Amino acid sequence: MWISLLALTICLLALCLDYVKSGYLIVLNPFSWVVLLILFYFAIPSLFSEQISNYYNWGLFSADILYSRLLTLLVTVYFSFLLCLFSSKHIGAIILEKDSHSPVLIWGVWLVIVSYIFWLFKLKLSEGVFSNAFLYDADAAKDPYKLKNIAYLLIPVSIYLYFDKYRFWVFIPNILIVLLDILHGSRTTAFICLVPILICFIIRHKKLYLTQLLALFMIMLAIGVVRSDNVVQNVPWYISAIGEFRETYITLPLYITDVDYVGNGSFLTYIGSLLFGIVQPLRESISNTYILPGTFIARDVARGYGLGSNFLIESLYFGFYGLIASITLLTSFMFILYRQVYKVKNIDAVLLITLFIVFSRLIVREGIPVNIGLYCFILIFYISPIFLMRKVKL
């Protein structure tokens, strides 16, 4: 357990040191977000590996738990070092230059989204959405109304419009989607909608609202407890509360020495993973051609719910060299983004880092190549059109 405590301490020290030096600018640094996510998705759940194995009948071996903790420690040291090297203080404050012309086309998109969300909210009320509030709804998780797509579109729309008017009401569609998602016992789409709100307020007021962020985090944990308690009974509250972190981490000790998994992926499968996010029309073809890491694990575990992978065990599917390649890919991606935010220093920089915050979570809990590819897809097809609309003056 001391290995996990050491990893936890290193994460906290790196984040606290960067915050003391940089203040609210820490939210603009991609390296700080990855360290924070490693803290929650690896360092914390690794502390409770034995309890998780016991309560959820994973049957983990002591050696696998040890190897997983050692790998977690190594990754923690590496990314904490990068955070110290690429400190948030070097980024500098964002320059908020108000556009002299109102972005009319973006307001038109916003009105269409608001109309659709109000219609959907009314529909859900008529279906009695409050009768099973906060309980996980598998049908809603399939996203038949494409709320996740709208949430991605709202990232540029809400950011540009907020910095145009500095009015909270531009986030009305974000808040409604958050409410709908939470009422269905989910948090993923809600997270996408909440990130631009939080980042806009932090950048505007140059203040990191730690108390408010902690309260929001506790609410998310409470939803996890409510949802998890309906899956496995008699589990300590703190194990239920870290449900998402627990489920993400547990695949590491479960497969870290599995000879049928580690090194089973080919170079072409890795390329397929990268293209899976970018080339959306070919996703089904790629899924049928290659067995991706998350698919392998989900089929092998077969517990009837969406247990997937994390970026470490996903990388080990391609062997040791796959792990090195993925860590290098992620580091390069973060460095490029860090340099862009450093150079741009305007609303577009806020947009880039907001999108990264959303995808950094997906990268850590699902895998690196797939979600870096998906980041590029969203940037091209969701962000760029709104960016171009902002340039149109009517």
From TrEMBL:
Transmembrane segments: 32-49, 70-92, 104-125, 145-163, 175-201, 208-226, 316-338, 347-364, 370-389
Record keywords, A-Z: Membrane, Transmembrane, Transmembrane helix
Nucleotidyltransferase listed as a keyword: no
Top-level taxon of origin: Bacteria
Keyword Transferase in record: no
Residue ranges the record marks as coiled coil: none
Signal peptide annotation: none
This protein's name: Oligosaccharide repeat unit polymerase
